[in-house]
Amino acid sequence: RVPELLALCEKVIDLSGDFRLTDPALYPLWYGYGHKREDLLKEAVYGLPELNRQEVAAARLVANPGCYPTSVLLALKPLLMAGANLVDLGDIIIDAKSGVSGAGRSPKLPFHYPECSENFKAYRVAAHQHTPEIEEQAGRLAGEKVTVNFTPHLVPMVRGILSTLYAKLKEPLAEEELLELYREHYRGEPFLRLHTPPGLPETRFVWGSNFCELALRVDRRNGRLILISVIDNLIKGAAGQAVQNMNIMQGWPETEGLL
Amino acid sequence: RVPELLALCEKVIDLSGDFRLTDPALYPLWYGYGHKREDLLKEAVYGLPELNRQEVAAARLVANPGCYPTSVLLALKPLLMAGANLVDLGDIIIDAKSGVSGAGRSPKLPFHYPECSENFKAYRVAAHQHTPEIEEQAGRLAGEKVTVNFTPHLVPMVRGILSTLYAKLKEPLAEEELLELYREHYRGEPFLRLHTPPGLPETRFVWGSNFCELALRVDRRNGRLILISVIDNLIKGAAGQAVQNMNIMQGWPETEGLL
Amino acid sequence: RVPELLALCEKVIDLSGDFRLTDPALYPLWYGYGHKREDLLKEAVYGLPELNRQEVAAARLVANPGCYPTSVLLALKPLLMAGANLVDLGDIIIDAKSGVSGAGRSPKLPFHYPECSENFKAYRVAAHQHTPEIEEQAGRLAGEKVTVNFTPHLVPMVRGILSTLYAKLKEPLAEEELLELYREHYRGEPFLRLHTPPGLPETRFVWGSNFCELALRVDRRNGRLILISVIDNLIKGAAGQAVQNMNIMQGWPETEGLL
Amino acid sequence: RVPELLALCEKVIDLSGDFRLTDPALYPLWYGYGHKREDLLKEAVYGLPELNRQEVAAARLVANPGCYPTSVLLALKPLLMAGANLVDLGDIIIDAKSGVSGAGRSPKLPFHYPECSENFKAYRVAAHQHTPEIEEQAGRLAGEKVTVNFTPHLVPMVRGILSTLYAKLKEPLAEEELLELYREHYRGEPFLRLHTPPGLPETRFVWGSNFCELALRVDRRNGRLILISVIDNLIKGAAGQAVQNMNIMQGWPETEGLL
């Protein structure tokens, strides 16, 4: 459908996973099908504005990011781009939790009300198709290979994603230094909010909004950095981000129509 | 399937609505199909043990009652059988509320988690197929025609039914007199509990249990009797009641296997 | 506090129940305290704009209505003002259901998450303090005494009220005639929506909004009119209605700041 | 109160945290008070039967474990006791999620229904008082110091804990080898169930039960072992485990009164 749409329209924003990965060899492994349009794959821009604002502005085909990768990459970006070797890039753990609307609108048994309510579970452990999307983009930001462990969970609520990330600091760094790094990095970003300790983001804080909220903690006992990131999977994780991309592609104010 | 099962087994308890109504003419009106086995319909016993314990004991085919009618008929029975004309039988209002498992296990859009959670609605207003089942059985208990208004609602919870009934007292009666009537009537019933004011039943009180809990109030300002009845729709409203019926049909202790 | 505020400000909108009733004698009966400022009680305007728009515009003290009465009175108004004797005014039954935020923000055991979730119950049966508020305003609209049965219930969800009302039609009236009456009556009202059968309102339809949505059904089998009304108890049932009143009192566009 | 109870009774099972830690110096750091009865602290047995069955049998004072540590230690035990150096003991990450009843029954704002429902959040990141309890017991099992990162989260559901643990394998080990290790280790344990891939535990599987259910996965891409553990925080995480301990202390069948 994307090729057909491109024949009809000037610009396309695709919300599926079809153009999110750069390496076509990853499609059979993670999506279970071979990619037939490597030319378009090469052309497609990964539509996370905080990473690729300029490329999005010039793009004909934008691949709107997955909901989990959005929450994860926004949490990692300042760290990965810091230049210095701040954390061990082969040892990043992502424990993500999503509301049920993340599974889409088609009624299926695992998302039937009586099956979901009052229940919590992990799924596709170490096998979720958002893993290579995170690794590709994180690697691009870091300028070297990044490997992650990614484990998604299902929360009995309609919407919202909270990702908890664990990274190993290479050198002891104070919480305040890292906070300052994040603050500087995201200065001026219209849809990012950083919590100052003891504040922590909660999914309801971004309900219906295009914001991503972040917090970080350093566990001085073992040199771990813990990052917490929340988005509304239906907004910043899907339709809202598509609107943000459209605004950029059309040269409109980036925040138009978004809360 | 019931005819086929009866050819194979001695006794059948049917949990569908196929044999709950006595009058075959009601099937086209409320279920949308004509009944093909009026002989079995005549033979079938309505399996609400508190109404028909002896008939169930002798039955070959038991029609396990609907979940709503179970909660409603147990609330009305002492009133309808009181002999005196206690309430206006043409003016009984039933406002019923059910958890989502009442809609069955097949995943459909209205019962998809994101559609149900944080939402409350009425459905099939004045058109639910449990209406004639209630009227037939209530009429049998009263010995005259009973008409009801029946409005079901969907509650964002997995299980439980609460029915609120409103009946017009023909003569002023004190709450305590009515309570005493109910107490006497249900003395010895293994699965009934009557709340004494200010107590009121809640659906969680019967979670996982075969009990029906009742309370009543008289609004002296306008002579209304208000009855409140709760059951677990999956137990007393379905499988538990089937077990109770099986126990009776087999001559086993009626409470066997039930909480 | 209201008297003190009136000394400080020109106009006050009170969200408590202190000035909602007209008859001071009702306060000891339903609120448990005697009213000390009958002068202000006389002056206060009942702030349901759809009933009292002009009086609100000129008021110094507006009593913002209760959440339940808002949902109920908007459902009844066209009926009560129809002039003809459409329904039996001594026989109106209101079965209301509210989300937990209706109980306020102070943490109390009945509203503790583990006590509310997966539970449904009735409370203050035939004894809720919103009863006289409904009766007074309904009586004023009808021009004669109105008596209601009012039974509130607690729904395991954060926000939303759905009220189901049952009234006895004095003459047989077709659903379509009544719908037309409602359509005409509410033509131009900015915050009312009427559902056309088979449509029915659900609480999520007004989530975060100042709208009241209505539907009606006639049960021809027994001449009952069934009305269904939903509002968001935090918006049209509280703060949103206060904003609507403020807009009217200030001469601003009535819908300003409201969805 | 424990000292007073010990004066009155032969045996005491304490469900608080007062006697869970071995090292009195940890109390000021994690609980904010100094311990006044180091003699009793020394005497107290940590009441996780799967770790200390014999000591519990002989104990006068049993410290019933915390809910989180129960879920975590049962997941780690076979690994820690394996003798070989299977995982990096300084690099264990625990991402735990609990239902709201884990916060106790006193109504407080963060556990008020409207604050919890449809929300997910982390809390006490790298600062929860169950951290030293896990480290002490894990260290005892391993025979050397164990350091963990422990981050708890609040799930909008009444009961259940799911802990996701991430450990770094020192040598590449196949999933099946580790599964076999767990199977052997827990053979005969009455309250443990191990899921075979692709099975994964969900909190509802242990609702109301004293069971702990486990699953494990190896992420071959980066040599991480992922463990998933579920319990009902009110049963195996509290009262049920106390009953299990009582059964052992009294010489009764260990499973008596438990599901």
Describe the secondary-structure layout.
The structure is a homotetramer of 259-residue chains.
Chain A: H1 2-8, E1 12-14, H2 26-31, H3 38-43, E2 45-46, H4 49-58, E3 61-63, H5 67-80, E4 92-98, H6 113-116, E5 121-122, H7 130-142, E6 148-154, E7 161-168, H8 175-186, E8 192-194, E9 212-219, E10 224-231, H9 235-250
Helix pairs in contact in A: 4-9, 5-7
Explain this structure.
4 copies of one chain form a homotetramer. With 259 residues, the first copy, chain A, is an alpha/beta fold. Chain A is 34% helix and 20% strand. Chain A is built from 9 helices and 10 strands. In chain A, the strands form 2 sheets. A 7-stranded mixed β-sheet of chain A has the order 5-6-4-7-10-9-8. In chain A, strands 1-3-2 form a 3-stranded parallel β-sheet, with helices on both faces. In chain A, strand 2, helix 4 and strand 3 form a beta-alpha-beta unit. The longest helix of chain A is centred in the last third of the chain and has 16 residues. The first copy, chain A, is globular. The model of chain A has no long low-confidence stretch (mean pLDDT 96). Chains in contact: A-B, A-D, B-C, C-D.
